[in-house]
Design a protein that fits this description.
One of its GO terms (molecular function) is actin binding. This protein is mainly alpha-helical. Helix content is about 90%, strand content about 0%. It contains five helices and no strands.
């Protein structure tokens, strides 16, 4: 079980992907361990309850039924305790699973933010392209107006010259 957790990928994404793929396997192993321990604890308590303590055996006034009932109640009240190693391992595994889930959550958040930023960049590029096209259109429009105004000014100069020329001709006659 520990080898599944301790195998590291080269990058965070690889580790997250590995965890994502192996998480069901880890959860199943922990559940199997828990079931096995519970079964073992129940069997232990069953065997222990089949042989009453010496004090109960020597007391002849207690019937077999009341003894079994008393033992059954005492076992119900007792919570089965995990051996320290199993408890520590289980706590460590739960902690590691919680850490991995947190890392996956953070990784998902980073991916979401990156996608949002990529979308914003794409929109800005489209806006930039639209503005460049608009600038080109304005430049071409401005250059046409300059050429047209230049023709108009040339035409007005020509008409003035004609007027002057023809006016002098008529005055000289």
């Amino acid at each position: 079980m520990l080898t599944l957790i301790q195998e590291d990928g080269d990058t965070f994404a690889q580790r997250a992907e590995m965890y994502y793929k192996r998480r069901p396997e880890l959860v199943k192993m922990v559940e199997d361990l828990r079931r096995s321990y519970r079964s073992l604890a129940e069997r232990y308590h069953q065997l222990k309850s089949e042989q009453p303590p010496l004090a109960l055996r020597s007391n002849s006034s207690l019937s077999n039924a009341s003894t079994k009932q008393h033992l059954h109640r005492s076992h119900i009240l007792e919570a089965p305790e995990l051996p320290k190693e199993t408890s520590d391992t289980l706590a460590q595994l739960e902690f590691q699973v919680a850490l991995l889930e947190d890392h996956l959550k953070q990784h998902g958040e980073l991916i979401r933010r990156n996608e949002e930023k990529r979308e914003i960049i794409r929109e800005l590029r489209l806006e930039q392209q639209r503005m460049l096209e608009e600038i080109q259109a304005l430049k071409s429009c401005t250059s046409r107006e300059t050429v047209a105004s230049g023709r108009r000014s040339n035409a007005s100069h020509v008409s003035r010259l004609k007027g002057l020329f023809f006016g002098r001709l008529s005055v000289d006659k």
